[in-house]
Design goal:
The protein is of the alpha/beta class and 204 residues long. 32% of the residues lie in helices and 11% in strands. A hairpin with a 5-residue loop joins β1 and β2.
Length: 204
Amino acid sequence: MDGGFREWLAGLTRREMALVAVIAGGALAGAGLWYVRSLPQPVEVRAERRPLPAPTASATSVFVHVAGWVRQPGVYELPEGSRVIDALELAGGPKRGAELSALNLAAVLTDGQQVIVPRRAEAGTSGAAGAVPTAPGAAAGGLVNVNTATATELEELPGIGPVLAEAIVAYREEHGPFTSVDQLEDVSGIGPVTLEEIRDLVTV
C-alpha cells in the first residue's frame, strides 16, 4: 500500500501536491483543536461571604436578699435565671435545723426578691400530741431565748459566730438577764445590722 501511495503522489502535479498539503494541514489543526477542547477545564470557585453573627448582649444580673436560717445572710448578685438553691449556696448554705421544705428551691429568682429560710421548729405545732420537745434555749414558736440559750445554740442564729455567741453569754453573766431584744446591741460586736437579722428569731 505504501508503494501505491508513493506512486500516487509521484503522479500529482505541483498544484495538486499543494492542495493535498493544505487539506492535510487543516485536518491536523482540526484534530488538535478537538483534543484541546476535550481536556477538563478549570472551574472558578467563589466562596460565599456570610455575615458574622451579631454579638450577644451581656448577661444581666439580679440582686436577692437572703435572710433567716442561713449561715451568711445578706444581699447577693446572681446571673439572671438563677434559682433559689443558687442563692442559698452563696449565703453559705442553710443552718442545721432549717426548714427547706417550706421553700421552692427550683424557683427562678427575680430582681429585688427576698428569700427567707425559716427554722424547722417554727413550722411545728405547739401542744400537738407527739410534738417534739423544744431545746432548753428555745422558746415557744421556735424562738431562741438569749437568756437561757447556750453558746452553741446561739451560733445557730444568722450572723452569730462562736465569738459573738460567747460574748452574749458573757454579757448576761456579768449584767444579768436581757430585759429586751434591743439590749443585745450593747454586746460588743453586735451592731444594728446584726440585730435586725436576728430580731425576729430571738426572745428574752
